[in-house]
Amino acid sequence: MTDNKRDIRGLSQEALIQFFEENGEKAFRAKQVYQWLWQKSAQSFDEMTNLSKSTRALLDDHFVFNLLQVDLMQRSVDGTIKNAVKLHDGALVESVLIPTEKRITACVSSQVGCSLDCTFCATAALKRMRNLSPDEIYDQVVVIDKQGKEYFGRPLTNIVFMGMGEPLLNYQNVLSAIDKITDPKGLGLSPRRITLSTIGVPKLIKKMADDEVRFNLAISLHSAIEEKRAKLMPLAHKTTTLADLRESLQYWYAKTGKNVTFEYVIWKGINDQESDAKALAKFCGAIPTKVNIIQYNPIDNGPYTQAPQEAVDMYKRILENKGIITTIRHSRGQDIDAACGQLANKGEE
Q1: Which strands make up the sheet holding 289-294, listed edge to edge?
Q2: pTM assigned to the model
Q3: Which residues form the catalytic set?
Q4: Is residue 54 located within the same domain as residue 100?
Q5: What confidence tens digit (pLDDT) does each residue in 329-347 have?
Q6: Which of 3, 17, 28, 304 sits a CA distance of 20 to 30 A from 260?
Q7: Where in the sequence is the domain holding 13, given as residue range(s)?
């Protein structure tokens, strides 16, 4: 028996094969265990009923499950569910189930806290503690899938990486989690139903294109005018210019053939003028894209105010006149601070 047991879900199928062979077991046991871990979402060795008791005891001697648990679940009047999820080391992240008539969407976190400093986002006030592991990301998805079935009678249909943290700054773990979520030997969700949202890191956008990912890409933009975006998203401005971002998105489209979605909030007195809308329309001309205009969700002591409907209508008119698909998104779960930009671990002591 080992003193420091490893989390079994940190092992690849090849590593499991090696473990079984070194311990005098048949290699095909690895395939069985892998299926229990990632397709059936087992949380203990006792659940692996097609393994002998001696094989389960062998696994228990060497490995553990570093499981997460829902520390607090809140339900909104609109049906949205927010989970404060406690990780094995006591750290907390938040994830959200967003129900609509046709979809059950999981909004998942990729980091504990966030290293970005977007001035309109509550998560930015939190210190980035660490990256989430692939299984911690995967487990958020499994929890929401179960909640969808329990509370709405429907399974998970979509995933958005729009929770706490910047997914591209946890690149390998996020892609590894997506591999397990989309693998037919895992959860088997289509990559077309997964969207990764980022502030835009050009070199990593290009890397995703080179890695031939099959999920969707969304960019948190909020202004196509350099000076304004610099005030809204200071770190994004420090690491890249809009010209660099545009060039990386052109590379993405050339390699993948996939459109990009721009996420855009309109604030009163910040980016609510015709010049702002025209700048966005021009920026969109670089590649085929669509724009999601997102309702602003206030945060405590925040300096921003949602722009009036007239400004939203003006944006939509200007963008659609240029042939740009434009959707207005109304937030869900505001009453439990579960809406976009509001995740901030308020329940953490």
Answers
A1: 69-75, 81-86, 92-99, 104-107, 158-161, 194-198, 216-220, 260-264, 289-294, 325-329
A2: 0.89
A3: 94, 340
A4: no
A5: 876 655 655 545 444 444 4
A6: 304
A7: 6-64
